[in-house]
Amino acid sequence: MSIQSLETALRDAAADLPADSDDVFERVLSRARRRRSRRRVAVVVGAAGALLALIVALVGLAPSGGSHVIVSGPVVVSTPDSNAPNTSTSTYIVPMQHFASYKYGLALDYPRAWHEVYYADTGSFSSSIIFLGTAAIHDPCTTTYYSNGQLEGISCSYAIKSLRPGDVFVSWFTIANAGGGPAIPHPNTKIAGRLADVTTERPGQCSQFGGQETITADIAEPPLDDKYEMLACLRGPNLAREDALVRRMLSSVHIRT
Amino acid sequence: MDDFEEFFAQHYSPVRRALTLALGSAELADDAAQEAFIRACVRWSRVHSMPRPAAWVYVTATNIARDHLRRAGRREHLESCKGLPESVRDVAIGAAVGVDIREALATLAPRQRMAIVLRYLADLTNEEVANAMGCSVGTVKSTLSSALSGLRLELEETL
After folding, report:
1. Per the CB < 8 Å rule, is B12 touching A25?
2. Once rounded to an integer, what is the mean pLDDT over residues B62-67?
3. What is the spatial distance between Cα A18 and Cα A47, in angstroms, rounded to a whole number?
4. What gap in Å lies between CA B73 and CA B69, rounded to an integer?
5. What is the pLDDT of residue A21?
6. Containing H/E element for A106?
7. CA-to-CA distance for B12 and B23, rounded, in angstroms?
8. Is A31 close to B67, i.e. CB distance below 8 A?
9. Cβ separation of A28 and B120 shorter than 8 Å?
10. Do B16 and A20 touch (CB under 8 A)?
11. Is the Cβ of B8 closer than 8 Å to some Cβ of chain A?
């Protein structure tokens, strides 16, 4: 029995099964519409809550000098000073740059000293959103062809080969959940109001590029159980400062449903 | 959403039929296929931009069915990626030749049946089958290999 004859037999067996009911498309469409409208309601309620919280914060802060929102500008980052006693900190003024992906609903601020590169790295269940950092970033995907010129395939890996001293590399992906359970099974924090799992390892998976610290952040994208996935690879000598910048970026994340 | 309607028209029936063969339950196949297409519709802009939207629906539907069976406590279905007991192959070897493909599929373990249907009827890649079944590509390959051995014995007289 060949694979071809097996495929034919399977197709024949499938064709012999009873036909679909007539109204199935309408049923699917109406249930999808109901689900979408529930999402909109959730967004409106969430937005109203956020507005209320902002008003409360403004009122609360006004007597002590008012408040303002920095969307993208310099921020102060304090880190433990590795050359001083434990109680000491180093403070940096860091100009920030704003990034927003309307397609994936993700916005964040990152240090202006980093560069921003986009390469399409799209698999069946994941899509690249942006690559950031000071490291040399390259196209993570390679297309190969057979000798007759026909496309053989596209394989994708990491977008960096190595980190130089002081380098940072950050990648953001969106991962589609294919119904295999919750997107964030073990959340340990919230980012942009969403359940998130942030982990730090030294060196972690980034050691393959010479990295000394790996920070990963998975952020839930309800109600569809998708998630955003951030990977940050850091290399000293200023690990504490780089770590603080990555966390500053994470704290700036906004998600538009 | 016109292209979703076109996508649905092209793929719903094949997905439902493949799941029916794989799961042996038309009712569960209907439910899983419909839920997968609802999810595809809700996130259509994203699913549409994937290289193989139909593969996403197959994998999603399979995972939905797997979750359902897990919740229902039917752990023998698609739950484990462990190797198959020899007795499963013994059943296939001992079965009479001359049966049709559905009877031959019925002699396979549920995981073997699912792997065969997803790989050779739905035309998913080994990686996609692994994603649908929650196991490694290596396990998919070995599951397919043992399933094909069983099917060859079952069907060599009829095909």
Report:
1. yes
2. 81
3. 47
4. 6
5. 73
6. strand A106-111
7. 16
8. no
9. no
10. yes
11. yes
Phi then psi dihedrals of residue A229, to 5 deg: -130, 120
Give the Cα separation of A208 and A140 in Å (integer). 15
Q: Report cis status (omega within 30 of 0) of the bond before A223.
A: yes
Q: Specify the range with the lowest mean pLDDT, choosing from A50-59, A126-135, A164-173.
A: A50-59
**Average pLDDT along chain A:** 78
Of A42-46, A51-55, B122-126, least confident by mean pLDDT is A42-46
For residue range A209-231, list pLDDT tens digits in order. Answer: 999 999 999 999 866 668 899 99
- Nearest by CB to B120, which of A7, A19, A27? A7
Nearest CA in chain A to B154: A1
Q: Over range A191-212, report the average pLDDT.
A: 93
Chain B, nearest residue to A181 by Cα: B67
Give the integer Cα–Cα distance in Å for A144 and A173.
23
Q: How far apart are CA A186 and CA A174, in angstroms?
A: 18
pLDDT at B98 over 50: no
Q: How far is CA B46 from the centre of its chain?
A: 24
Residues of A in contact with B47 (CB under 8 A): 176
What's the pLDDT band for A110 if we cut at 50, 70, 90? very high
pTM for the model: 0.53
Tell me if A25 and B8 make a contact (CB, 8 A cut-off).
Answer: yes
Count of residues making up chain A? 257
Q: Please write the tens of the pLDDT for every residue from A234-245.
A: 999 999 999 999
Residue A22 has which token pair?
Answer: 């007539």
CB A203 within 8 A of CB A212: yes
Q: Backbone dihedral region of A34: left (phi > 0), alpha (psi from -120 to 50 degrees) or beta?
A: alpha
Whole-angstrom CA distances from B17 to A20, A175, A203, B49 are: 9, 28, 48, 25
C-alpha atoms less than 13 angstroms from C-alpha of B147 in its C-beta half-sphere: 27
Give the rounded distance of the alpha carbon of B9 from its chain centre: 20
Q: Is the pLDDT of residue B40 over 90?
A: no
Q: Is A224 on the interface with B (CB under 8 A)?
A: yes
Residue type for position B52: R
